[in-house]
Amino acid sequence: MTLVSGWGRFPVVDSDVLRPRSFAAVGEAVSAGTVARGNGRAYGDAAIGAVRTVTMTGFDRVRSFDPATGRIRLEAGVLLSDLIDTFGPRGFLPFVVPGTRFVSIGGAIAADVHGKNHHCEGGFGRYVDSLLLRTGQGEVIEASREQNSDAFFASVGGMGLTGIILEATMRLRRVETGWIRERVISASDLDAAMRALEAGDAATYSVAWIDCAARGRDLGRSLIYLGEHAGRGELAEGVDAFPVGKESRLSVPVDLPSMALNRTSVRAFNELYYRMGARRAGGSHVVSLYPYFFPLDSVGEWNRIYGKRGFLQHQCVIPQAGARAVLGDILDRVARRGDASFLAVLKKLGQGDGILSFPLPGYTLALDFPVKGDILNFLDEIDRLVVAAGGRLYLAKDARQSRATFAAGYPAVPRFNAIRKSLDPAGNIRSKLSQRLFDEV
Amino acid sequence: MTSRKSVLVLGGSSDIGRAAARAFAKAGYDAGLAGRDVAALEPDAADLRARYNVDVGLYKFDVLDTATFESFVNGLPALPDVVISIVGLLGMQQNAESDLAHATAIMRSNYEGPSLILGLFAEKFLGRGSGTLVGVSSVAGDRGRASNYVYGSAKAGFSAFLSGLRARASRGGVHVVTVKPGFVRTKMTDGMKLIGPLTVEAPVVGDAILRAVENKTDVVYVSGKWRLVMLIIKTLPEAVFKKLKF
Fold first, then answer.
1. Which of A305, A299, A298 is nearest to A255 (CA)?
2. Whether the model pTM is above 0.80
3. B interface mutation test: which of A2, A60, A61 has the most B CBs within 10 A?
4. How far is A165 from A187, CA to CA, in rounded Å?
5. Contact between residue A197 and residue A347 where contact means Cβ atoms under 8 Å apart
6. Residues 6 or more apart in contact with residue B191 via CB below 8 angstroms
7. Is the CB of A62 inside 8 Å of chain B's CB atoms?
8. Strand pairing of B219-221 and B174-180?
9. H helices within chain B, ranges in order?
10. Complex-level ipTM beyond the 0.85 threshold
11. Tell me: the pLDDT tens digits for B185-241?
């Protein structure tokens, strides 16, 4: 047994970790209580097998690529960073990228990850045409919208619980450059932020960074980042059409003491960040896709700033209608509490694609908290607000929600479980997350 | 596509071999992959073609089958610009201490085969007056240690062969690179306890090999830390060294 955790480093649990080198070996690795793991960027316990964890990053080959259509067939362990670095210079990028590029294709499908364009272009799964799935009962099936469609829609956003994704065929976006034309808007409070995001519906990319240390009149003050793919003509002369993705030069070498992030340091950081951003607001400028999409990737192992005990990310989505009131309530509680981090993100989402996909039309808010004190009780309170508003939590980030919160947020679970059962009658595929939220006890 | 440079990777299915082939293909080299099981190399060939739009050839090569080396070299469609030998066998030290066949396999896979094949290519390269040979040796060859001296001694022999070949070939326009990767997370080291800060991923080694070839470096420790570690290990007096268990 090995101690395993997700990106949040909470919880840390025992699981057998295997690294198969062939699809045959993947098949042999599956036994009672197995789940696949990609690059380990799910925050909580989603990619940890109840008994056994099968790491898929060794499967990193591109099987075929058609530059005429942008269609690509890949093994599930290919990382988005690899895909971007390899095909970006050839004029192709993934349609959807989450906030880190260090995720595997299999993981991105299983979590149906979303990006800054979800409000208009949907999630990762929308651009997946088919996938090769090794089910819990040992069948290897190709699943698509036409063929084995139940397995397909259960696998997109299915947190790896339909089986092990071996390969996928997806479409890439043709781009002229690897640069983004960015426009920054400063919003002095939550109403202004939400107005700016509504107005940003027409933009391909939109996201708001919220200063969750701000209170009272400043509650919800934000910087909104809108973005479009820049054409060649928008680049200064002599600038390469595709920027170089730098290795992270900064890295957090050790676990910081848990007091490093406190009310004062976070407030000071946020104040500075907001003012600097507000000064840039108004005009537009061209930035590399790397800092635009992946600001945190430039700091290696940033998860260590929360100290050894790890951290929790709470990401909820609230349906459009009730969003303003609930978001205001949550932000007010968080601001009064004072220990949320500087990483608070607000974004509009559209309809999800998979049966268990997280997105629904409304607003998603992501907050980070160090694991300490009564944080678990506090988040339970927040969950009650989310559930009352008809919202739910993102499973790829979750490490602690209750069964009741999950069941209320994901009414399609019975249908999902029925498909799961048909693919895996013996129930071999189980993660720590599924034990916590899905499985019969 | 004869105008493009080409690389031949011996041991093309190993993790370092795949990484090296990717690094060179990314830099625009056409690639040849050689290994015992040609069919097993097919997915890697497809990967290189899809990623980098280069030509890829596959060749059967068995490092223990030295009798076939000459026909292997002469049978290639063209003499490559760069040949990289990554073949090797870590084996099991404890078994090798009493099992002569196993010890022989380790010695032949790490010293005899790689040296003979690179020696053959050296003759061809010297005849042409250009080319680069890369031998992936090991820090284990810097000093024989109790825990893996059968492997280490074979790598030491290979390092010495490369050193001498380099001195001779440099006068004929042919460059020889010795690579000492240190700990690399690969199939070969699966399940071994590796020391985190001294361990690199295979792509780092692939990139280091490409850089060494382009910069005409002689000896490469992939991580600079290893140069220091091995300097200390090499300078320990034998009386002290023999008491160490590692």
1. A305
2. yes
3. A61
4. 42
5. yes
6. none
7. yes
8. parallel
9. 15-26, 38-52, 69-75, 93-96, 100-107, 113-128, 149-169, 202-215, 224-235, 238-241
10. yes
11. 888 787 777 777 788 889 999 999 999 999 999 999 988 888 888 888 888 888 888
